[in-house]
Amino acid sequence: DHKDKDHDDEDEHDDDHKGHDHGAFDPHFWFDPNRVALAVDAIKEELIKLDPENKNAYEEAANNYLEKLKALDQEIAALIESIPSNNRGIVTTHESLGYLEDRYGLEVIATVIPSLTTEDGVTPKGLVEVIEEIKEHGIKVIFIESESPTQSSEIVAKEANARLVSGLWVETLKENQSYIDFLKTNINLIAENLKEQ
Asked: N or C: lower Cβ tally within 10 Å for the chain?
């Protein structure tokens, strides 16, 4: 069960999963707003140490943002809950959604590019295994991260009779985009496409 696991701050996010693992440390903690809330608290404390005269302003700003993160967490949970449980399997180009998986109960079935490597780490045997996983789980959608190469994903999609969905941003914000908008955009893209899977 992947829902709502507790993690230590030093968690290397290497849970055992069927058919895949998160490999090296997964840096994409921002896919869990509760982890971002921990960062907000840490930043607030550092700012107060550096500028104690403005402690109240930092605390107020942090508390306001923490409320927004709490609302975001609830909104994401509701969106994921709206996806039929048998459609919550997800395939991406790159290993980047482990925290989203653990927090909200999605299941990362496979990634085209193994662990946290680059496209250079892709092998023909690995692609065959991904194609088999996709077919076995009835996956119809492969999400392509905007920052990742697509060649291997295109091969897998063709062989597995799945469609590619682009527009998933995992590493960077679009121009003038806030973190909250970034996460909402990604979750909406995932939810809309998994519902149709």
From this structure: N
Element counts in the chain: helices (H) and strands (E): 6, 6
The pTM of this model reads 0.80
Are 161 and 184 a contacting pair, CB within 8 Å? no
Instruction: Confirm whether 30 is domain-assigned.
Output: yes
137 CB contacts (<8 Å, ≥6 apart)?
89, 109
Distance CA 48, CA 62 (A): 11
CATH number of the domain at 82, please.
3.40.50.1980
For 111-170, write each residue's pLDDT tens digit. 998 765 566 678 899 999 999 999 999 999 999 988 776 888 999 999 999 999 998 888
Domain housing 62: 25-197
Neighbours of 33 (CB within 10 A): 25
Q: If we measure between CA atoms, which residue out of 186, 182, 184 comes closest to residue 173?
A: 182
Radius of gyration for the alpha carbons in the chain, expressed in angstroms and rounded = 18
- As a whole number of angstroms, the distance between CA 54 and CA 196 comes to 50
Assess if residue 140 is contained within a domain: yes
Residue 7 lies in a domain: no
Q: How many domains does the chain have?
A: 1
The span from the CA of 173 to the CA of 153, in Å, is 22
